[in-house]
Amino acid sequence: MNRTDRTDRTDRTDRIVIENCAIATMDARDTEHASGHVVVAGNRIESVGPGPAPGGLDGVARRVDGTGHLVTPGLVNTHHHFYQWLTRGLAQDHNLFDWLVALYPTWARIDEPMVYAAARGSLAMMVRGGVTTALDHHYVFPRGAGDLLGAEIRAARELGVRFTAARGSMDLGVSDGGLPPDFAVETTEDALTATEAAIDTHHDDAPDAMLRIAVAPCSPFSVTTELMWQSAELARRKGVRLHTHGSETVEEEKFCHERFGKGPTDYFAETGWLGEDVWMAHCVHMNDADIAAFARTGTGVAHCPSSNARLAAGIARVPDLLAAGVPVGLGVDGTASNESGELHTELRNALLINRLGDHREKALTARQALRLGTYGGARVLGREGEIGSLEPGKLADLVLWKLDGIGHSTIADPVAALVLGPAAPVTLSLVNGEPVVEAGRLLTADEDDIARGARDEARRLARIAAEG
User: 268-299: string of b/e by CB count within 10 Å (b at 16+)?
Assistant: First the structure.
């Protein structure tokens, strides 16, 4: 267990008091307050309720007047690929397989400085937009590229965000029937060795951990069955979670039937990849039996509505997944297929896109969309006991959204304003009780420096890729 990256406020008695704000707690009863308070003590939520905060509190370091604001739990991102920040806007009119084939040759030339710059850019966009817990699925490890996972971890530590690093892998190159080029994959042994080393070096299993590691081979069309089996065994031996892509496109469904003689869900079941410690990205093409298998085993889903639309993958059956009891959270996905790179826009897109499906206007409500981005994401990551709702004793990860500006001024329901209205400015965001955003700006990094660094590294990557 590694605890060096944890911001520790448990031994501090100072308090932050937020009052006069609307509150959406996202607790089991969906408790809301039209005007209430939240008290943070150290890195924990001490109290939440209607009206002013209790009188006579000691050690109040800060009072915040939340008039015109809504407080929610911090947003939880359950799927991303940070390195893609450097290749936004490319392959604009491709489906998933064609898009991957077009971009793999460029991605296979990334190195540590590039990944660090891309991680800073990806994290900055999410954090200043209300994300307090981020997940990245990194699976491209060119030989001699440096410590790519370490670069992401360093960026997350500097920005002050709670982070799960999903150590990905690919070992099925095109010569063996996979999709990625041979020079972009690892050997099975190398992938497993590096993944175990990442767990041993970085994973923190403490309840207030700022950094955790997941085991995350990339997808059925880029990973051997042997790596799937052994990754599941490794994760369970080490007590960490498992993540991969699943049922994203009709092309993936066809690949699985041709190579394995079965669909993706049956393949995952056969390789030990269904369970309460597993979550899949996308899950667009699932039949009733697939959904029942996920519900029966507690397997989670990272719903990525913007990316699914960008790559024409289809509309995931989110209402049916939720009705069956499947854990569902939201994901940005890589910014080469969701160029905005923001999770709070996914609240709106999840609601709107799912209303285009079979359930139409009954698909999702505004509050269900907000739950996907908060408690749902926490549940998918196995952290619903610590984050995802505003309750006494939980970690102080929360966001104060400004809703009294022109963009939201005529929407009386604050949750509807947040979900259906334009992107709301963040007045204050706390991670582990520490401010990371004030008045819409990062406190933990220079945004202009991040932009310059990412732009320079994107140009360097484009130049290297062009030179072949």
Answer: bbebbbbbebbbbbbbbbbeeebbebbbebbb
- Distance (Å) of CA 390 to CA 14, 127, 254: 19, 18, 43
| Tokens 């582990």, residue located | 432
Of the candidates 210, 263, 275, the one whose C-alpha atom is nearest the C-alpha of residue 239 is 275
Structure tokens at 93: 């009119």
Summarised one tens digit per residue, pLDDT across range 174-224 is 999 988 888 889 999 999 999 999 999 999 999 999 999 999 999 999 999
CB 71 within 8 A of CB 399: yes
Q: How many C-beta atoms lie closer than 10 Å to residue 114's C-beta?
A: 26
Tokens of 62: 């800060």
> Please, which pLDDT band fits residue 7 given cuts at 50, 70 and 90?
very low
Cα separation, 49 vs 37, in Å, equals: 6
Q: What is the pLDDT of residue 70?
A: 98
Q: What are the beta bridge partners of residue 169?
A: 217
Structure-block tokens of residue 437: 């955003």
For residue 240, what are its two tokens?
């960490």
- Gap between the Cα atoms of 108 and 181, Å rounded: 9
Backbone angles phi, psi at 22, to 5 degrees: -70, 150
Band (pLDDT 50/70/90 cuts) for residue 1 is very low
The CA distance from 177 to 255, in Å, is 10
Count other Cβ atoms within 10 Å, centred on residue 239.
10
The whole-number pLDDT of residue 170 equals 95
pLDDT value at residue 9: 46
Q: Which two tokens stand for residue 326?
A: 């499947």
pLDDT digit string, tens, across residues 261-296: 999 999 999 999 999 999 999 999 999 999 999 999
Structure tokens at 459: 């140009």
> Model-level pTM?
0.96
d(CA 444, CA 124): 9
For residues 281 and 330, the answer to whether their CB atoms sit within 8 Å is no
Mean of pLDDT values over 338-357: 97
Spatial neighbors of 164 by CB under 8 A, at least 6 apart, are 133, 134, 135, 136, 211, 212, 213, 214, 241, 381
The answer to whether 81 touches 39, Cβ cutoff 8 Å, is no
**Amino acid at position 320, single letter:** D
Report helix, strand and coil shares of the chain as percent, to nearest 5.
Answer: 40, 20, 40
